[in-house]
Design goal:
The protein is mainly beta. The chain has a single domain, classed as Sortase (Sortase, Chain: A), CATH 2.40.260.10. It has 3 helices and 7 strands, in the order E-H-E-E-E-E-H-E-H-E. The strands form 2 sheets. The protein has a 5-stranded mixed beta sheet. Strands 1-2 form a two-stranded parallel sheet. Helix 1 links the parallel strand 1 and strand 2.
């Protein structure tokens, strides 16, 4: 699936417009993340239940699963190390998601990491939580976090 980089932060209007086209969005810069293979948090967001659902199976990714990202003639191999649940109603949670070290705002990154993020709409609705923000994002997101373990040429 194509990943489109944009200046901004996770789930802002530019990123939402990219996701609404069935693509994945990757925020870059001060409030976003870094590119593939770079030291810090490579954030990718995509829809799960709309726009073709490119991240429909993201919640089922298990600890140890490999995430392969092809970019610039290289394949970056990340391994899932954990899962975070993020609330759009919590500034603290949103800071954890976009931190250079996922889950740890203020910590300086020392390695390349990845955060794959999608909505928790089915889970929220099952609990009777129908809250959404101005862009239709449900309260919670499911984030899979991983670390870069290898890079190879394509």
């Amino acid at each position: 699936m194509p990943v489109v980089a944009h200046a901004g932060h996770a789930d802002d209007l530019p990123g939402t417009r990219i996701q609404d086209r069935g693509l994945a969005a990757s925020p870059r810069g001060v409030r976003g993340g870094v590119g593939p293979g770079q030291i810090g948090n490579f954030i990718i967001t995509a829809h799960r239940t709309s726009a073709g659902g490119p991240f429909r199976r993201l919640p089922s990714l298990r600890h140890g699963a490999h995430i392969l990202v092809a970019s610039g003639g290289k394949v970056y191999d990340y391994v899932v190390t954990g899962t975070m649940t993020v609330s759009f109603r919590s500034a603290r949670d949103l800071a954890r998601q976009s931190a250079p070290v996922p889950g740890h705002p203020g910590r300086l990154p020392t390695r390349a990491m990845i955060t794959l993020s999608t909505c928790a709409t089915p889970e929220d609705h099952a609990r009777g939580n129908y809250w959404t923000d101005a862009r239709g994002n449900p309260e919670h997101r499911i984030d899979k976090v991983g670390v870069l373990v290898a890079v190879r040429a394509t």
